[in-house]
Amino acid sequence: MTNKQSPVISFKNYSFQYRAQKRPTLTNINLDIYPGERVLIAGPSGCGKSTLAGCINGLNPCSNPGEATGELLIDGVDATKSSIFELSAHVGTVLQDPDGQFIGLTVGEDIAFSLENSCMPQDEMHQITRKVAELVKINNHLDYAPHELSGGQKQRVSLAGVMVDQVKILLFDEPLANLDPATGKQTIELIDEIQKETDTTVVIIEHRLEDVLWRDVDRIILVSEGRILADLHPDVLLATDLLAENGIREPLYLTAMRYAGITLTPEKKPSHADRVALSEEDVKRLKQWFQSRMSGKKESERDPLLEVKNLSFGYTKGQRTLQDVSLTIRKGEMVSIVGKNGAGKSTFSKLVCGFEDPDQGEIHFAGKDLLTENIRHRAKHIGYVMQNPNQMISKTMIFDEVALSLRNTGLDEAKIRERVEETLKICGLYPFRNWPISALSFGQKKRVTIASVLVQNPELIILDEPTAGQDFHHYTEIMEFLRKLNEEGVTVVMITHDMHLMLEYTPRALVFADGRLIADDSAAAVLCNRELVERAALKETSLFTLANRAGITPPEAFVECFIEEDREVRSHGR
Amino acid sequence: MAANTVLNYLPRESVVHRLTGTTKLAFFLLFTFASMITYNTWVLLGLLAMSISAFKLSKIRFKEVRFMMIFMLVFLLLNNLFIFLFDPDQGTTLYGTRHVLCHLFWRYDLTAEQLFYMVNISIKYFVALPVAILFISATNPSEFAASLNSIGISYKVGYSVAIALRYIPDIQRDYHSISQAQQARGVELGKKEHFFARLKNSVNILLPLILTSLNRIDTISNAMELRGFGKHKKRTWYTKRSFARNDFIVLGLGVVLLGASLTVTILFGRFYNPFV
């Protein structure tokens, strides 16, 4: 850190209020970020961290009208009087969705987009594009179309696209959302390398703390309710209780150490699982804790609900999206399906729901052949909840939305009302029953979509990424709700990229890679298996690292112990 | 996902693809104009031969643009039907003779003149359509924007058209998944359902489709703005290519065709009359 230089970003008594809001979203922000620093801005959803990013790149107030008071200097420019275009010469912003921000039709064109807008002559433009593409190592793909790229490659293109302007500040707005765990890890590595090579200032907005900390950051700025709550070195911040108090999940290995009774101090360097100092005393405590928790629990065998045999399917001839998948899901289970994008996870669920017809194989549900039934009949047994609630909601009122499927069966209105109200009660939406859906938060909308599926009383529900983009608080809310449903007898299958979800809520995980089912095991065992983790683009849990370092075997038992204790602690409070 | 999109860029290695977008746009305009001003069957047949060979040269297969073709055929049939319904004697008026083939009903006689007139109109469709499809399917959407820009249309307009074209496959994919989720909730949208039930129920897809599309637009417009889109009155183009020999040849050909069509029209009138 070079404090002698003047800050490249400087907020002084800065406040921001959107025109449509009654109260300011940011209040009295004082923050200096120096050249070459790497700063992580963390906070729960709605805390104002995205607004903060918008103020830095000029989207606020240029695109989202609002009023700013106080001072904000970006690389010497007075941001409150500047334009989005002027600021874009200083700040390069990478937005969260690498698909949505792909403007050009090919990699080269997308990288050059900003140069085109600056009227740069074509020769020079091609030259710079090539140079920057080399820097982010995408130079062999300049002619590729977006759909030919992997998520990680798209992320590289987005980064190159803002680097052509030789910006001093790189701003990442939730770069890890929508990425599979392995890609997320590579993204953090890429940001780290680029920062080192170009000595830019990096600001990352993200609530997935543990994933960002895979590489060093200089400071973590904790934002809550529009104010800066802490501005500390990661080692210092992680030794406090501030994260947990403010709805940010601390890295799992640290929680495990706390459970074992180890006091965390900044001197222990807690920001990396493989570097945190473990004294002999600490190792002893961990082992003791592990032994005290070890319990032999057995799952009783339940009746099979969904049986799939040798299922194969391809969208086009000669190309198999799914190959020879056989599995059984039993009544009352909670199962996660994991694997990288395009591994066949969604295709599998589409085949089960009847959205597509398999080329080969059998699907049985509670002993009955499913393949002879159409989508609508299957929907009475199997509910499907899409990732994006906006894609499911077709009515403006909550009640109508939930009642939709019943009205289509021609049930009489009194019966419908009874069933809908009952479902709304289960989903905690009863008080809102006469509200318009547009007044709900994302998490509540998600619940509405789950309710609209549950109202048909399905025995099995399949959810695609139930918690994508949710902070810890909303994540817990949705997942606890699903668990409650599960306890009431609904079998739950979730497609997910979230390793925490998989560990904490699903005892069993199905791992897909390249259209095949490559593992069917306990979630803890999957995440403690290096080879599997690599093949399916998952991410090892830091608990595994910790267990190895403390010499605890088998590591998956340690992971399971942790999950169990964590569940107790979280449901009863500490 | 299935690749049967309605209208999109179909990359190939072909002479047509190698022409610059500006050339294709200019040729498209010249050619359409040439076919619009005349009803001369011989000229139209000549243009039709051109149009079909251009299509052949592009290496785009008929199957890939089937939807557009069918769409056009339906339109063509409707057009012919209405011409006949509103004025069954238009042909007679134009050609000055009246050869009744058979009487249909009321004031409707089927005349050779009317048939010939409608055949000519149909040929016009077949002349213009392959070239129009080529312009869209064989032009890289970003070059498409550059080509519109090069004839004086604001790049912002050109770019919004290009982006819209580029997002068609995404929106179709959204449509597909939304429709599936709706079917799972008992909304009759499947292929086996009654046509009118499907039509009525497709309203259920509209709201979610609009919402998700608005979201897409919001993201992309933010991303574009953050990278300086609209900063200047002009912009340069990464994909724009300079004119090659073939471009000049094709442009020349376009001008010659228009000239020929004009000359024939001025010298011999708009109609070729086989009835006298």
A few lines on this structure:
The complex is a heterodimer of chains A (574) and B (276). Helix content of chain A is 38%, strand content 21%.
Could you walk me through the main structural features you see in this protein, from its secondary elements to its overall organization?
The complex is a heterodimer of chains A (574) and B (276). With 574 residues, chain A is an alpha/beta fold. Helix content of chain A is 38%, strand content 21%. Chain A contains 23 helices and 20 strands. In chain A, strands 6-7-8-3-9-10 form a 6-stranded mixed beta sheet, sandwiched between helices. In chain A, strands 16-17-18-13-19-20 form a 6-stranded mixed beta sheet, sandwiched between helices. In chain A, strand 11 and strand 12 form a beta hairpin. In chain A, 51% of the residues are buried. Residues 1-5 of chain B have low confidence and may be disordered. Chain B has a two-stranded antiparallel sheet with strand order 1-2. Chain B has helices at residues 15-18, 21-37, 41-57, 66-86, 90-95, 112-137, 141-150, 155-184, 195-201, 203-226, 245-268, and strands spanning 100-105, 108-111. Helix content of chain B is 67%, strand content 4%. Chain B is mainly α and 276 residues long. The termini of chain B are far apart. The longest helix of chain B has 30 residues, at 155-184. In chain B, helix 8 (155-184) packs antiparallel against helix 10. Classes of the chains: A alpha/beta (574), B mainly alpha (276). Chain A: It is a peripheral membrane protein.
